Amino acid sequence: MNEGGKGLTYNPRDGILIIGICSRTKNTNLGEPGYQPGCGIARFLSEGKAELLKLKRFEMKHSLKDILWGKKRFVSELAMNQHLVDGPDFAGEEVERYLPALQRYQGKFYVQGLGGAPEAEKALYSSGHHFLILSGLYGMVSPDEPVQLYTCPVEVESIEVQAFWRRFDTLTRILLDYLQKNSITRVFDCTGRQIYRDMINWHYLKEKSGVTILHCHYAEAAGDPALGDLGRMTREYLLAHSEQELLDLQPDIPIQGPGGEFIFSNNSCPPPNYAHELPPGMPTGDQSEEDIRKIREYINYQLDEFELNLVSFLKDIHAKHTDLMYALDLEHRTKAEVRRKEYLREHPMEQDRDLSLIDFLEYGEYQRLIDGRWSLFNKTFGKKERFFERFEQLRKLRNKIKHNNPVSLSDLKEGEGHLLFFNSIFHTCRGTHT
Q1: Residue 334 phi, psi dihedral angles, 5° rounding
Q2: Separation of alpha carbons 247 and 16, rounded Å
Q3: 3-state secondary structure of 296
């Protein structure tokens, strides 16, 4: 413990949970040798979910060699990842050096907002509240968890990181376990950036836990520019108020905070009169090699969004029509079942979860499933021939991008049109279900 903490330790004791995000700016001091398991998030999770998180961290760490960052470098080649090893934090036994997460992260939320590690530890550890940090590599960490020096950006150009934690709602279900095991009654989402916020399926979390989840929005800034303000609000408001005071807080009523007006809302989107984070958009230039690379990265991001939204949409249909999977022939149902069994062999702690076969379908099987029960989809997707033409072009585009094959500018722009079509449909469907 550093001097600012004055001997305080992280020992949350009430039902309030605050969620923030990690930062790319880090303390590059390697830290002290050895991982102290008694100081990690695992002590707040059930044994099964703690083991699942470690295994998923291991998978994510070893996927860094396949995720491109910039033109030609893989994330595993970035300087801050050169000392990463398979320590106990990644279900391994190698020895490396660590710093507590609250000392490792030095982005705007932590330095400008929380006031740096000494002030952050003093405010957080004496508040009695729970605090978790979303991380591209670690998934989630507690503030005192020993963390290696690393970088694993959750950005459009490395969207595979976000998609990894969203698959099977993995991170969401680990967070659900945390809420249940620690009797959490109210969650404050202070993630600020949409690309991090989307690592969690908030609708699923609310539905399964029954816990009130309030998203924090700042009137004058959103996204990355708001992180310092969100950190300051966390320190001077959330950590300064008692559990009962935060439980008594009325949602969606503006509050005058340390740096301006903010609101705790049931809605993950800010009010209309508040600042809004600009969503990722199609790059405007298309003349240079760099322009085309950025367009390709954006389309890759949108393709991952499309598949995740499609799976969610199909699950909603399946909930109403439980025989939907029988639209697939026996051969393809069997292949999906084999994938599910293989996943459960690798993750035996997931045996108690009823994983849907839809989670284990591949692109061609989505097509077969929809085709086999077209009567359930025709009102949503319009003309059958045009739907499958769009879908097939997206499937081919996805395969080229995922296998790092050349893609023409015209194919990328045509793909954008198809993705906009499907995004509009899924957005309308989500509005219908809420």
Answers
A1: -65, -40
A2: 8
A3: helix
Q: What is the mean pLDDT of residues 241-263?
A: 94
Confidence of residue 249 (pLDDT cuts 50, 70, 90): very high
Contact yes or no for 117/2 (Cβ under 8 A)? yes
Please report, as a single letter, which amino acid is at residue 288: S
Which pairing describes strands 73-74 and 68-69: parallel, antiparallel, or unpaired?
antiparallel
SS3 state of residue 200: coil
104 within 8 A of 147, measured Cβ to Cβ: yes
Q: Which of 208, 144, 137 is nearest to 353 (CA)?
A: 208
- Give the pLDDT mean for 263-289: 92
pLDDT at residue number 97: 96
> What integer is the mean pLDDT of 18-31?
97
Q: Could you tell me the two tokens for 345? A: 């062999």
- Give the 3-state DSSP-derived string for the chain, with helices as H, strands as E and coil as C: CCHHHCCCCCCCCCCEEEEEECCCCECCCCCEECCCHHHCHHHHCCHHHHHHHHHHHHHHHHHHHHCEECCCEEHHHCHHHCCCCCCHHHCCCCCCEEEEHHHHECCCHHHHHCCCHHHHHHHHHHHCCEEEEEECCCEEECCCCEECCCCCCCCHHHHHHHHHHHHHHHHHHHHHHHHHHCCCCEEEECCCCHHHHCCCCHHHHHHHHCCEEEEEEECCCCCHHHHHHHHHHHHHHHCCCCHHHHHHCCCCCCEEECCEEEEEECCCCCCCCCCCCCCCCCCCCCCCHHHHHHHHHHHHHHHHHHHHHHHHHHHHHHHHCCCHHHHCCHHHHHHHHHHHHHHHHHCHHHCCCCCCHHHHCCHHHHHHHHHHCHHHCHHHHCCHHHHHHHHHHHHHHHHHHHCCCCCCHHHHHHHHHHHHHHHHHHHHHHHHHC
Cα-atom radius of gyration of the chain, to the nearest Å?
22
**pLDDT, tens digit, for every residue of 320-378?**
999 999 999 999 999 999 999 999 999 998 887 778 899 999 999 999 999 999 999 99
What torsion, rounded to 10 degrees, do the Cα atoms 397, 167, 374, 390 define?
A: -20
